[in-house]
User: Fold this.
Amino acid sequence: MKATTRIVLADDHPIVLNGLRSLIAAESDLELVGEASSGGRLPDLTDREGDVLRLVALGYTNKEIARQLDVGVKSVETYKSRGVEKLGLKTRAELVRYASAQGWLSDV
Assistant:
């Protein structure tokens, strides 16, 4: 059985998005898990979840993120968990790919 590839679309051109959606829908091994049309975060991701996910993608530990954002480590874990769930991401690698597509890693 072939593994399903999970995809997050990040483009602001409606024709491109519609074409990509059609291509993804036609392939049984592809799954569209989210879209971002302006290079920003998805609409249902809170600012804090986005901040935490961005820092995780940059390689910071939960403890470092907690110190930087002045919150507890447990809060960081909660924001991270909620954020990746909303985005449909399962692994750190998927998070890094998503972050790269959003331009979150462009300053690195």
